[in-house]
Protein: Glutaredoxin
Organism: Herbihabitans rhizosphaerae
Amino acid sequence: MLGRADCHACEAAEADVRRICGELGVSWATVDVDGDPELRGEYGDRVPVILIDGVEHGYWSVEEDRLRAALAGSGRT
């Protein structure tokens, strides 16, 4: 997940991703876009951004059913 500090939407998305990935046994990480100029330029307007295996899955909010289906389809669960 890509996000930034002091971002309410990022905190909410991170909680959802933590819960969903925890239930599915899928590892995940959060990266602060403000720590990398390239990421900030690419994604800074759209955080939080959910990536699956490095590919953009969605942004601004977590669509739980869609995320679960994508993780199941990626072979990660």
